[in-house]
Design a protein that fits this description.
heterodimer; A: 388 residues; alpha+beta; 8-stranded antiparallel beta sheet; 5-stranded antiparallel beta sheet; globular; B: 349 residues; mainly alpha; Serine Threonine Protein Phosphatase 5, Tetratricopeptide repeat
Chain lengths: 388, 349
């Protein structure tokens, strides 16, 4: 799952568990940047945002360099904070109010769950429960890990998140008005949950999808830290400046696990260098989405800017990540078959209901979501059966 | 010595009511048992093990025995379906320890050890059990063994409670504050539990104002924190304000399936001279204790003994339960309970 349940610590604090981050140019207002942060995986309809957290988007200008991106000094952050729910006239349920703080310090108030977006000059906001837009054949991914072979079976493949909800924050900004006229058009974007007030401790952060759960989670190939649950540590990092103290541990895990993915199809497309470094490690360790807001909206742009960089060509799409983008297929294709390799399919091609092209893009929540354990019951099968 | 500890560091945590709503939302999202085979089994076991712990947490905060029972049943099924999983065995050990089935919990931890659980993780689990049965020296050694793998907060809070329970109050006060300073999350539950345990320490030490401050801090962090409210009422009763204690206990007695609150409400009402009002609560507690002693003798015999020696007014039954507790656990507290029951029996003879 994209970043759902990404580490043991977060399992006991779901309101701080980042499930997904999306960044894409607005389909209906070209030139505007849409940012989405999903938290609280498998949220029951009563779930609420924490009043002790800042839900934060951070964007920085980036420029392509040799097989990675150079990150600019300027940073534009949008903080979303929430009050404890209170009574509201005419409502049976408690109402939660939120505040968005712009890079300028200007604050915009909104109400959680209000289907009518809050809009001021240059900014549109929605926050509340939505149907989880992510989709993945988790059974196939886990079977691949268990058998160390590609194990996606198109027939009978199911999306583990079918019918499930998340809490979403969707914001659309005019970068020129909100970030400044000299910003962009290429941005690195991350989403975070940070303790608000007091010590600003980062609890979770996410840039690209499946970096933690698919690429970093497995310990068995790591020659340095084969017993380390690295994801909690990784979650604390500043995506734009990883601590040097731990960088070696992350690199070792990336190198080992990326090499495992390269072995899945039997042919090496990413030869390691003399030090055992994988060619994708530098790029992926800088863990942020790269979006070009000057390009038109694309549903299939995720990793395109990165792969263009690796191939030494100009990117042609907006990159970033849109909700309907089939990133599991894209990621496995890149890791297993290389930049322009044959497309791999996990057999699950869309979410419960695809996102729309109208704000807030993510569709209304399922009023009766399945519980996670029922979903797991459908997930189980011996690895041999799951393998193609 | 009894100075309040909360002002120097005030960690920001999620609103307690909101957090309880989210806890239930999380439990609802994780509800049913799955059949556990195949490559996803490990993932599912981990999720269900979390569910066992979440149910136990809600059971503690809301005083819901039903949650403890559901956690125990879930843990049993978990081990039935994944008998070689150290995660499942450890989860069952914790669920059993919650219901004071310490020997079985230890046996589960031994099995988890054989199934490949990390020795330092097991040391932390074993330490909690050794502490619960009064083996403080052993618990201390095990905590030291577990220390490198635990967060500063988890380690320090366990150590603080150990010092408190073994009567080392000065050290406990210091470590409680250190634990508080080490807290890094936004969940209000760990800090509320820390304040609660600090309150229990002061209550046992007879320092009622300090106990009141700590229980009140726990209750403010998580409104509806049943054991903290129950102990606040106990402090009020000890301070002679029986009516205030009764007011505080009534909502708990009405909603909780733990008879302790009905029992204490009856006691408070009697202390306030409201005997007629006390009787239905006494009867309700008696009936519920009878059920729970049958179902979970390890967890409820000592509480039931307390009940029969006081508001239940059946000293023989109290003595019988005190002896039953002693057979199950030869701790200082169990011996003290027998002594108290014998004294009451001699007095009534």
């Amino acid at each position: 799952m994209a970043d759902h349940f990404s580490g043991p610590r977060i399992l006991f604090d779901p309101a701080s568990d980042v499930a997904d981050v999306y960044a894409f140019p607005s389909p209906d207002r070209p030139g505007r940047l849409v940012l989405v942060l999903d938290v609280f995986p498998a949220a029951a309809p009563t779930a609420l945002f924490s009043d002790a957290l800042a839900y934060r988007f951070r964007a920085r200008p980036v420029t392509p360099a040799d097989r990675a991106f150079t990150v600019g000094e300027a940073e534009y952050s949008l903080d979303f904070t929430f009050a404890a729910p209170g009574e509201a006239p005419g409502s049976e349920h408690p109402v939660q109010n939120g505040t968005c703080t712009l890079p300028s310090g200007e604050q915009i108030l909104f109400q959680v769950g209000d289907e009518k977006p809050t809009e001021t000059a240059g900014v549109r906001i929605f926050a509340g429960p939505r149907l989880d837009p992510f989709f993945i054949n988790l059974k196939g991914v886990l079977a691949s890990d268990a058998t160390e072979k590609l194990a996606f079976r198109p027939e009978g493949a199911t999306n583990i998140l079918e019918g499930m909800n998340v809490l979403s924050i969707v914001v659309e900004v005019d970068p020129e008005a909100v970030f400044g006229s000299d910003s962009g058009p290429l941005f690195g974007v991350v989403g975070e949950t940070v303790i608000s007030g007091g010590r600003p401790t980062r609890l979770e952060r996410m840039g690209r999808p499946e970096i933690k759960n698919v690429i970093l989670a497995s310990k068995k190939f790591d020659p340095v830290n084969s017993d380390l649950e690295i994801r909690d540590l990784y979650n604390e990092e500043d995506a734009f400046a990883v601590r040097q103290d731990y960088e070696g541990a992350y690199r070792a895990r990336f190198n080992a696990n990326l090499a495992y993915f390269d072995r899945l199809a039997g042919e090496t497309v990413w030869p390691l260098d003399e030090q055992g470094a994988h060619p994708l490690t530098d790029l992926l360790l800088a863990d942020f989405l790269v979006v070009d807001v000057s390009k038109p909206f694309s549903e299939n742009g995720c990793f395109e800017i990165e792969t263009a960089l690796l191939a030494g060509r100009e990117h042609t799409t907006c990159g970033g990540r849109a909700p309907n983008d089939d990133i599991v297929d894209t990621l496995f294709t890149l890791l297993v078959n290389g930049v322009d390799g044959n497309r791999i399919s996990d057999g699950v091609d869309q979410a419960t209901q695809p996102a729309t092209h109208e704000f807030p893009y993510l569709v209304s929540p399922n009023p009766t979501p399945p519980d996670l354990m029922t979903v797991f019951a459908a997930l189980m099968a011996p690895p041999e059966e799951a393998a193609a | 010595m009894t100075g309040t500890t909360t002002d120097r560091h005030k960690p920001r945590t999620t609103d307690g009511t909101l957090a309880l709503t989210n806890l239930s939302a999380q439990i609802d999202g994780l509800a049913v048992q799955a059949r556990l085979t195949g490559p996803a089994a490990h993932f599912a076991v981990a999720q269900q093990s979390v569910l066992v712990d979440l149910l136990t947490l809600r059971g503690h905060f809301l005083g819901r025995v039903a949650d403890y029972e559901q956690a125990a049943q879930l843990a049993d099924r978990l081990v039935e379906n994944a008998p070689d999983s150290s995660t499942a065995l450890s989860a069952r050990a914790r669920a059993r320890a919650t219901l004071h089935r310490f020997a079985e919990a230890m046996s589960d931890l031994d099995a988890a050890d054989r199934a490949g659980a990390r020795p330092d993780d097991l040391a932390a689990e074993r330490a909690a059990i050794m502490q619960a049965v009064g083996c403080y020296g052993e618990a201390h050694l095990l905590l030291r063994e577990a220390a490198p793998r635990r967060s500063d907060f988890a380690m320090l809070s366990a150590l603080a409670v150990l010092h408190a329970e073994s009567g080392n109050i000065a050290e406990a006060v210091h470590v409680f504050q250190e634990a508080r300073n080490a807290y890094r999350g936004v969940s209000p539950f760990p800090l509320a539990q820390l304040d609660f345990r600090r309150g229990v320490m002061w209550l046992r030490d007879g320092e009622l104002p300090a106990a009141r401050e700590a229980f009140d801090a726990a209750r403010r962090r998580v409104p509806g924190y049943a054991p903290a409210i129950g102990h606040l009422a106990e402090v009020e009763l000890l301070c002679g304000d029986a009516d205030a204690a009764a007011d505080r206990l009534r909502p708990l007695a009405e909603t909780s399936d733990d008879p302790e609150y009905a029992s204490h409400l009856a006691l408070a009402l009697r202390a306030a001279g409201r005997y007629q009002e006390a009787q239905p609560w006494r009867d309700r507690a008696a009936e519920r204790y009878d059920q729970l002693v049958l179902r979970h003798p390890e967890a409820y015999s000592d509480h039931a003994c307390d009940f029969w020696l006081q508001v239940g007014a059946d000293v023989d039954r109290g003595l019988q339960l005190a002896l039953q507790t002693l057979v199950m656990r030869q701790t200082t507290r169990s011996y003290a309970l027998v002594q108290r029951a014998r004294a009451a029996s001699n007095q009534s003879a």
